[in-house]
Each structure stands twice: as structure tokens, then as C-alpha cells.
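DM from R.C. (forwarded with permission)

"hey, sorry to bug you on a friday — could you get me a structure for this? deadline for the figure draft is monday and I only need the backbone to look sensible"
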Amino acid sequence: MTSQTIYPDAPKAERMRHDLKRRSLAVSTVERVTPNMLRITLTGPDLADFPSAAPDDHVKIFIDGVDGQPQMRDYTPRRFNRDACELVLDFALHEAGPATAWALSAKPGDPLTVGGPRGSLVLSPDIKRFLLIGDETALPAIGRRIEEAGADVEITAYVAVTGPGELQVFDSPADVALTWVYRPAEDAASAQRLLGALEGIVVAPGTYVWIAAEASVARAVHTHLVESAGYPLAWIKASGYWLLGQADAHEKLD
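My reply, with the result:
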């Protein structure tokens, strides 16, 4: 006799909408977290009503391009402290676009306009298991999810980075199992190493799966979990945070 795995219904979640607002902020501190990750803390009274209810929220930053025309780029609020009016953004230095150029030259006092977030997907506190899969661009959301989780939460994460120098440490009371998957920067749009790490994975029912990476990588991981691991679509959220060869491009896959 064979047994059939019973999966619960779709995870309970509330989609919150926020009033769109542009905020005029200033750089407070600049910190090199790893060789390829720059952390910038922004401050300003405009943050008094800043909303960020989910770890994978995103805001838009407005910077000048090489031609002087305004450019917009999406970033995840890594941390936010309303009392201190501080917003932390992490910049993965994986490309030489205007946002990276701005971050590399940023110094205390420099202005930055930030818009959003437009909304937040707030998961039910009943969800106690997470599988997080991503690359450097997903690390702000993954780090925030880990650090904001309670002691009764189990988190398994697989993160693709270029090498040991890019490892980060997260302080969390949660039960966290973190696997770093090394692959060279030129293979950032290849899913091979991540898929190898996930080979044979068994995802327990009731686990919320979150995937974010280069679009083709996120798509391949999403397909693997659905077709090879047999995990239900309703419990997976997958996003292409960037597309190889395209500026300011992203793709929702679920």
C-alpha cells in the first residue's frame, strides 16, 4: 500500500496596499558587508510614516543615469527602524549600472529619493516552516525573513554566491539551516549549482517556499520543485529579481 502526501490548502496571506509616496532621504552610513555587498543606511523625517510589513517588500530608488535622465531601480528594505527614522538598503554589486555606481560613490549626507513600497504580502503567523532559495539579490529579503522570525519557526535556505567571502551571518532565534552554494559570477544566470544542491530535497507539507534570483534560474528552481519534488504551486512564490542582459527588469513567475 502506498501513502499519498496530503498538502494543506493555499497559505493564508493578506495583501496590504500602501499609499504611494516619494520620500527625500539622506545617506547616514555606508558599510561594506562583503566584497560584493554594500549596505547603506538612509535617514530622514519622511520615514515617520514609511510602511514595510513583509520581508520581501520593495521600494524604488531614483538616481541619475549616465545621460542625466532619472532612473528607477527596485530594492528590498533590509531593515527599517521607525523610531530612529532609518531605512537600510543592501546593494549587490553584481553589475555596473547607475544604482551600483551611485552606491559605490555614496557618502554621508548624499540625498536619495525613495518611493514605495506599493504593497506588502503578509503571511499568516500560522506558517512556521520556510524554504528560501535565491542569489545575492535575494539576500536582503532572506536575511530579513530570518532575522524577523520567531523561535517557533524553522527556516531552510539555499543561497548562491560567488564564494566564501560573500557569506553573511544572521542573528535569529529561529531554527535556521543555511546552505551556501558557490558559483562564479559569470554563472549567475545558470541554475546548475542550485539544482544540484536541491537534488532529492523533500519539502514538508505546510512549508512556504520563496524563490528569487535571475529569472531563468528562479524559473528552473520553481519547475524542479513542482515537477521533480512534487510540491504544490499554491505554496511557492517565485520571482525573477533580474534578467540577464536587461536593465531594471524583473519577472513574476507564480
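R.C.: lifesaver. Residues 215-228 form the longest helix (14 residues).
me: no worries. The CA atoms of residues 20 and 116 lie 5 Å apart.
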